[in-house]
Design brief:
Chain A: InterPro entries: DUF58. The complex is a heterodimer of chains A (449) and B (210). Chain A is built from eight helices and 17 strands. Chain A is an alpha/beta fold and 449 residues long. Chain A is elongated and about 145 Å long. Chain B has 210 residues and is mainly alpha-helical. Chain B has helices at 3-33, 49-67, 71-86, 90-106, 114-132, 148-174, 180-201, and strands at residues 40-41, 46-48, 141-143. Chain B starts with a helix and ends in a 9-residue tail after the last helix. The chains are: A alpha/beta (449), B mainly alpha (210).
């Protein structure tokens, strides 16, 4: 790409002073001054005559995988033009301090690496940030300018980015998770009470049309059939089969409330773009919780679907397998607030008998109302509270007062949910009752409806 | 409008302004207590910009010491050196070299002495280094390898200039007693070096012309 290189004012100042000193030195016979002027003039002349006539290219690309936990990376690829000395970069990322860097141009080589016609190789500069945030966001912006001639020549800079990167949430392992009131299907990882082709013995009964021959229990058949006439052995008149309980799977619907995204700092509640990178927001907690539950249920062989309350899109229907986990991972990572939340005329339809897990901050009545409706329709509903613990240290007094009012209303909603039979889980809880303990307790709880 | 109403509005306005100042102070304190982490950029061996400025300071001080001027010139050159450190650029360093060269003509160093070699080497070195770090903030990370190309140019020009100056001064002193053959050889060497310098300066025509 052709671009203009031009001499700086430093070149002009240096040349003028050098010429003046040269002439004065020649007139007065002062060789030392002349020598100094010659050095400056030779330097300026070399720079002027060998300056680049084109500029290189700078590309910003994502890096697959991360260098370590919670680190998001990209690569700046620079293909320098011939004769360029260095590249100046200013790398910016949200929640991080900008960094100015100057990197040297790679040496021209005859190796088999990527190179231009002048023989210079491509220089790759990895950049990364540490973040606790997830989702698809513009992260890296790189302002770049090639440098030549020790400040005597300059060129126009350019900007690469902002580059959007999708950061997938991390799923933590869970041991026990609750199941819906009613399992469905005739195959799956769980035992059910229906007769079917499972593992647990249900009873031993007479052979009826439709029973499998390999289910015949010959020992019981021989014991229950009496000796035949004129023979010493039993006469087989009735066959007995072992009947087992069927297995079933659970249908789980994850309901992600992506209508709002708030952090611990109350002053950022009206502007999610000012939330720092090292603290997860409510939506990050919701994404991590949803992916954790999805992975746990799918690994057990159940079917999981997803409904995003922040978008008026078709939900992901319940399904199983690794592909469903990948599908859910991307949909969960891409869930984000989309403008002003629109009111729904009717609640989203849920598969019959499904376990519904609602991930929300419960800062308004929408999800509270939906949870109660679903519970009233016969579903087992888990309400997962994903609001992070607020940091009130730097909040103004009026905000603290407003937050206390909101917190009291939220507490009333959660209490009303718990009283109505919806099971409430605090995902950010630590200490005596972390999430794993709460879920294990819910698993063992005998729920009667 | 009653005076009581005006008083209420004044107190409310003052209260709001004080509240805004308190909010700003609170946010500033939060920023100081929890500074933003930097973006990680993986480079080769690098040094911060302030280290290069210290290098400029060292070069400038050594050049002034080698020049050994009077008190007034020390003050003037120190002020120019401070300007270079505050705003490193080829222009400010060129100004320092220009003023130094001017004073050098007024108070020259002994011919072919270490001081002469030092001043001729250090002043342009400061000019090159200041140009390399031009417009860069103190916290900028600059790879050491960035100095390679300017250093090569500097060394080539230094070799030419130092040899040419020594040769010219010997030639000048030949007029006061050195043998003619020796002087002629010197001039020949100077001419060859100048030719090499000219070859380096003008763009070479190659198959893949730059």
């Amino acid at each position: 790409m052709k671009t203009k290189w031009w001499p700086t004012s430093g070149m002009a100042v240096t040349m003028v002073l050098a010429v003046v000193i040269f002439l004065l030195g020649m007139l007065t016979g002062r060789l030392q001054g002349v020598a100094l002027a010659v050095v400056l003039l030779l330097g300026c002349g070399w720079i002027q005559l060998r300056h680049p006539h084109a500029s290189g290219t700078v590309r910003l690309t994502t890096r697959s995988g991360t260098t370590s936990e919670s680190r998001v990376g990209a690569t700046v690829s620079w293909q320098p033009a011939a004769g360029v000395d260095a590249l100046r970069l200013r790398t910016t990322a949200p929640g991080h301090r900008s960094v100015d860097t100057v990197v040297a141009a790679p040496r021209p080589s005859t190796s088999s690496g990527p190179s231009t016609s002048s023989g210079s190789e491509e220089r790759r500069i990895p950049i990364s940030i540490r973040t606790a945030r997830t989702g698809r966001r513009p992260i890296f912006t790189v302002d770049h300018q090639e440098r030549y001639g020790a400040g005597l020549y300059t060129s126009a800079g350019d900007t690469a980015g902002p580059m959007s990167i999708t950061v997938l949430p991390k799923a933590t392992p869970l041991r026990e998770v609750p199941l819906p009131y009613r399992l469905s299907g005739l195959t799956g990882p769980h035992d059910s009470r229906r007769a079917g082709d499972g593992n647990d013995l249900r009873d031993i009964n007479l052979f009826t049309p439709g029973d499998r021959l390999r289910r015949i229990d010959w020992r019981v058949t021989a014991r229950r059939n009496g000796p035949g006439p004129g023979t010493s052995g039993p006469a087989i008149t009735d066959l007995y089969v072992r009947r087992t309980h069927a297995t079933a799977d659970a249908a789980v619907m994850l309901v992600l409330d992506s209508r709002d995204e708030v952090g611990p700092d109350l002053t950022t509640w009206n502007d999610s773009s000012s939330i720092p990178e090292d603290v997860p927001t409510s939506l990050d907690n919701a994404r991590a919780a949803a992916l954790t539950m999805a992975r746990r249920y799918l690994q057990a062989g159940d079917r999981v679907g997803l409904e995003d309350l922040g978008r008026m899109h078709r939900p992901v229907p319940p399904s199983g397998g690794q592909r469903q986990l990948q599908r859910l991972s991307m949909r969960i990572a891409l869930a984000e607030p989309e403008g002003e939340p629109r009111a729904r005329n009717r609640p989203p339809r849920m598969p019959s008998g499904a376990l519904i897990v609602v991930f929300s901050t419960f800062l308004d009545n929408e999800t509270w109302h939906l949870a109660q409706l679903w519970h009233g329709a016969g579903h087992r509903v888990l309400a997962v509270d994903v609001l992070p613990e607020p940091d009130l240290r730097n909040a103004p007094r009026r905000l603290v007062t407003a937050y206390r009012i909101i917190a009291m209303e939220r507490h009333d909603r959660l209490t009303a949910l718990a009283r109505s039979g919806v099971e409430v889980i605090d995902w950010t809880a630590t200490g005596d009752r972390p999430v794993q303990v709460t879920l294990a307790a819910l698993t063992r709880k005998r729920v009667r409806r | 409008m009653s005076f009581g109403g005006i008083g209420d509005r004044l107190s409310t306005g003052v209260g709001r302004r004080v509240g805004r100042w308190q909010d700003s102070a609170r946010q500033a304190r939060a920023g100081i207590n929890a500074p933003k982490p930097p973006v990680r950029v993986e480079t080769g061996q690098a040094a911060p910009g302030w280290a290069y400025r210290i290098g400029c300071l060292v070069l400038g001080v050594l050049a002034i010491i080698a020049f050994a001027p009077g008190v007034v010139l020390i003050v003037i050159l120190s002020a120019l050196l401070a300007l270079v450190l505050l705003r490193p650029a080829a222009g400010t360093a060129g100004l320092f070299c220009g003023v130094l060269g001017l004073f050098w003509m007024i108070e020259p160093s002994p011919p072919n002495s270490l001081a002469q070699i030092a001043v001729l080497a250090l002043a342009p070195a400061l000019w090159v280094l200041a140009g390399v770090i031009a417009d860069l903030p103190l916290r900028a990370r600059i790879e050491i390898a960035v100095l390679r190309a300017p250093a090569i140019r500097y060394l080539v020009v230094q070799v030419v200039a130092q040899v040419a100056l020594i040769g010219a001064q010997l030639l000048h002193s030949h007029q006061q007693g050195i043998g003619a053959g020796f002087a002629g050889l010197l001039v020949l060497v100077i001419a060859v070096i100048m030719a090499v310098a000219a070859w380096l300066l003008f763009p070479r025509l190659r198959g893949d012309q730059q």
